[in-house]
Design brief:
The protein is about 35% helix and about 15% strand. The protein is of the alpha/beta class. It has three domains: about 1-235 and about 350-405, FAD/NAD(P)-binding domain; about 245-345, Alpha-Beta Complex (Flavocytochrome C3, Chain A, domain 1); about 430-480 and about 480-505, Methane Monooxygenase Hydroxylase, Chain G, domain 1, CATH 1.20.58. The strands form four sheets. Strands 1, 2, 5, 6, 7, 8 and 15 form a seven-stranded mixed sheet that branches. It has a four-stranded antiparallel sheet with strand order 10-13-12-11, with helices on one face. Bound molecules: flavin-adenine dinucleotide and succinic acid. Flavin-adenine dinucleotide binds near residues 36, 46 and 49. Its cofactor is FAD.
Length: about 525
């Protein structure tokens, strides 16, 4: 069994930022970061647009950023959280810069600020169109310098350890004591005992299959927190990004950043009509929920598979300077953005809900913290404002650090039982895992997508129950594998999304149910 002061699950912006801060402050304390893939594989690595921060105090103000966040969240944000996050933003961004992150500047030496949907001002700090990559690499360089941090790559966290696993603990209140890990290289499972555990395990995009997220985004942290009986909320608010590059075969889709629309690109349907002004006065720069729902409506109206992003009127040289990665990707696919429209389609992108935390990142389970996309802070409400996610992770990792820097109690010594795999066999039925995964993803796309209905949600419940039974049976009888655990986690996440959708009787932000149109705050399609 391994022991550590701080167990950090995830090596994206949330996990790494916390690890650096706590390890720097307490060189005599041990930090272990566990990550299931290569150390940089994460949603963070693929972030394009940037970090929303109020920099330009002449045109912009905290008040405007707060207001934009509240409007995007459609009445369900926690105002105190929004104010705290927005006001902390500039300090947290400066920290990244101090650690070596490089953000684009203009000819005056000021940050070159971008604009995205729902923002009333230019306030998105970025590194070309690969902001996440720049942040991830900067943080990993810092991690390397810190001797008290160990990074375990290709280690998959299976489950959190609570008193349910430990006989001698009689406490009634739920407490986390660490986690069980699967070493993907030698297939061994060990326990890791931790004084404090941080879940920074990212998003859920893979539950839908067609997603801007990498395949690792399987909602593991949310599923294990849910199994540990932590509070999980707002799961119905799955955010669909309006403009993923359309690929007939689906799967993980390349993102065409919202910043491209901020740069002046138009959305057109197959008939060539620029449709967004028909739906919202902000046109292409309406908030993401509205743009995705409008595209969905256009697709259904015309029976099309995709719409287009028209950049042909934009200055190509400037475009390539701002978006070299997107330009190159299009070029590789023989899309010349100066002549051709880019085919795009909405895709699952971000989860606004997740593990409920307070402003210190504390979950409802003692010694268990959560940060980043897997957490639900109250910042996003029913729909996240673009580029507020990296910001949220930076602010909350700092809050958790501050809290833990002044609150540290070592666990008493306990014996954590070894992982019990008696009665299981090596699965010879890998095909069953693949089959159930495909079925789950199709079910979520077809019945629990951008536009939902009561009858589709009821059908989804029944179909999911069949998948659940089969997957649980496999889990109980098979030797643990990453693909099986991920599938089990995705089934748990799907269950949470469907059940919490059924309970929502009013359309808000990213949640739209055709049977709730009379309870809609903003719009109907
Ligand atoms: P992640 O960066 O996803 O990291 C999660 C980590 O947890 C990974 O290291 C993963 O391996 C690990 N992990 C997960 N499960 C396990 C397990 N069972 N065992 C061990 N390790 C595990 N947001 C913005 O604010 N601005 C943007 O411009 C922006 N652009 C985006 C573009 C794309 C294409 C995508 C996909 C997202 C974008 N977002 C953007 C959202 C933002 O990038 C993410 O919400 C944010 O990076 C999440 O950070 P995180 O640290 O919470 O999780
Ligand atoms: C994008 O660049 O469009 C993504 C921004 C985000 O998800 O915040």
């Amino acid at each position: 069994m391994l022991t550590t002061d701080y167990l950090v699950i995830g090596s994206g912006v949330a996990g790494l930022t916390f690890a650096i801060k706590i390890a720097e402050r307490f060189p005599d304390r041990k930090v272990i970061i566990v990550t299931k893939g290569d150390k940089d594989e994460s949603n963070t690595k693929y972030a394009q647009g940037g970090v929303a921060v109020v920099i330009d105090k002449k045109e912009d103000s905290f008040q405007k950023h707060i207001q934009d966040t509240l409007i995007a969240g459609d009445g369900l944000c926690d105002r105190a959280v929004v104010e705290m996050v927005v006001k902390e933003g500039p300090k947290r961004l400066q920290e990244l810069v101090n650690w070596g992150a490089n953000f684009d500047t203009n000819s005056n030496g000021n940050y070159d600020l971008g604009k995205e949907g729902g923002h009333s001002e230019y306030r998105v700090v970025h590194h070309k169109d690969i902001t996440g990559y720049e942040i991830e690499q900067t943080l990993l360089r810092c991690i390397q310098q810190l001797k008290n941090i160990t990074v375990l790559t290709h280690h998959f966290v299976i489950d959190l350890i609570t008193q349910h696993h430990i006989k001698e603990v009689k406490e009634k209140e739920l407490t986390c004591y660490g986690a069980y890990l699967l070493n993907e290289k030698d297939n061994t499972i060990k326990a890791i005992q931790a004084t404090n555990t941080l879940l920074a395990s990212g998003g859920i995009g893979s539950v839908y299959g067609h997603t801007t997220n990498p395949v690792i985004a399987t909602g593991d942290g949310i599923a294990m927190a849910y199994r540990a009986k932590a509070l999980v909320k707002d799961m119905e608010f799955v955010q669909f990004h309006p403009t993923a590059l359309y690929m007939a075969e689906g799967g993980a889709l390349f993102l065409i950043s919202e910043a491209v629309r901020g740069f002046g690109a138009y959305l057109r349907n197959k008939q060539g009509h620029r449709f967004m002004p028909d739906y919202d006065v902000r046109a292409e720069l309406a908030s993401r929920d509205i743009v995705s729902q409008s595209i969905d409506n256009e697709l259904k109206k015309h029976g099309d598979t995709h719409v287009f992003l028209d950049c042909t009127h934009l200055n190509v040289l400037e475009f390539t300077k701002h978006f070299p990665n997107i330009y190159q990707k299009c070029k590789d696919l023989h899309i010349d953005i100066s002549k051709h429209w880019i085919p795009v389609v909405p895709a699952s992108h971000y989860l606004c809900g997740g593990i409920v935390v307070d402003t210190y990142g504390r979950t409802s389970v003692n010694n268990l913290f959560s940060c980043g996309e897997c957490s639900r802070t109250g910042l996003h409400g029913a729909n996240r404002l673009a580029s507020n996610s990296l910001l949220e992770a930076l602010v909350y990792s700092h809050n958790i650090f501050k809290y833990l820097a002044s609150n540290y109690t070592k666990h008493y010594q306990i014996v954590i039982p070894e992982w019990n795999d008696k009665g299981t066999t090596i699965p010879d039925e890998h095909v069953l895992i693949q089959h159930n995964l495909k079925e789950l993803q199709a079910l979520m796309r077809n019945y629990v997508g951008i536009v939902r209905s009561n009858s589709r949600l009821q059908k989804a419940k029944i179909k999911l129950d069949n998948i659940y039974q089969e997957v649980e049976e496999l889990y109980k009888t098979s030797k643990i594998s990453v693909s099986l655990c991920e599938l089990r986690n995705m089934v748990n996440v799907a269950h949470l999304i469907i059940n919490q959708s059924v309970k929502r009787k009013e359309n808000k932000g990213g949640y739209f149910n055709i049977d709730n149109v009379y309870n809609t705050s903003q719009k109907s399609f």
